[in-house]
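so ive been stuck on this for like two days lol. basically i have the seq below and the ligand is fe (ii) ion, smiles is in there too. i just want the complex predicted, nothing fancy, no docking runs or whatever. if the output looks off dont worry ill sanity check it later, just need somthing to start from for the group meeting slides
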Amino acid sequence: MAYRTFTVPRNIYYGPGALQSLTTVGGQRALIVTDPGVRAQGLVAKVEQICAAGNIKTAVFDKVEPDPSKETSWAVFALAQEFKPDLFIGLGGGSSIDAGKTAWILYEHPDLANLSFMEFLREASRRELRKKARYVAISTTSGTGSEVTSAAVVTDRSVNPPYKAGFGSRHLVPDVAIADPELAASMPPVVTANSGYDALVHATECYALTQPSDMVDALAIWSARTIFEWLPRAYSQGSDMQARDKMHLAALQAGIAFSNGRLGMVHGMAHVLGATFGIPHGRANAFMLCPCFAFLYPAYKARLNSLAGFLGASGRDDHSLINNLLTDLDNLKKKVGIPLAIKDSGLDKKRFDEMLEPISVDYFNQLSRSPVNSRMSIEERRKAGVPVTVDEVRGLFLHAWNGTRAELK
Ligand SMILES: [Fe+2]
């Protein structure tokens, strides 16, 4: 049996008041990477104050947009070259933390800045970090898990449809993660729902697709159960600090799980929906989850059956067990105001119809050029639950549009 690796931040500070731990992380010059919303909430001022108390000089980049483009990370990199930080502080949801991670790689290895986007993605995953700066990630949403993960997402908008690319390496796991639920307490209900559902997809997709591992499974199952129990309350009673605390830590745990396990086509297809139609990431995942699980069922039967059991579903046979699990997953969406179908989310049908073919071809090509898939025969891909035709991909997007799923095979 082969051994495995499990990588986490050196320190994780969590619970109400954890932001104060920032005084203990060391460093002299911190570059804070954040977005205008976080700035408007007064959180940048709070972080600056704590840094000043610890004699840490600060500079701020506060223009990170949702699904940040590569240009944004390159702009953070330009500021870093001027300011010369020994600490990056990613402050926000996944977008800010990921833009900071991408800029951090560029700052450590400026030669990567001149590569093509595809070459950058390949090379960035290989380079060691921490010669110039360390990374502190402070999450203000309960979903992405980026504060503890080896992954970052960056979008290339120079191509059509835009290419939302995930990349990563264990070097990219932040040195310090701070998960203070007080910072997430002001999330509006819709953000609580979308980001919380993203965390649920991290936990469940990771559990379904990852080789059994007591380290990963423990965190994936615990976080999924916690989200089922607490997300509705965090959504409907945002000032309930216990619910906020439960969700903030569950999202972090799900992040550790998938960072040390893996995600797959739910996230892959959700990234396409996000990049093309601007659907928020967690909501796009919610749309893809049940169609993809139904598609993946033959290849991941044992893991999906076991997931259903852990999440309290029951059934007279395997198919009814999984159908009940998928119904439970849909019911959670209803409880937190997430539509079951893209068509009910306000997206224009004409726009979806126009883009259906290009996004289906695009995602199929992404799958086909992945190093693992490209080595497999058609039959091996079929067995592994990887779509083997553009038709299959199109069918999954259509199920997500209609809020349906294929019959289990
Ligand atoms: Fe995600």
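The chain has two domains: 11-184, 267-278+290-409. Residues 267-278+290-409 form a domain with the Dehydroquinate synthase-like, alpha domain fold (CATH 1.20.1090.10).
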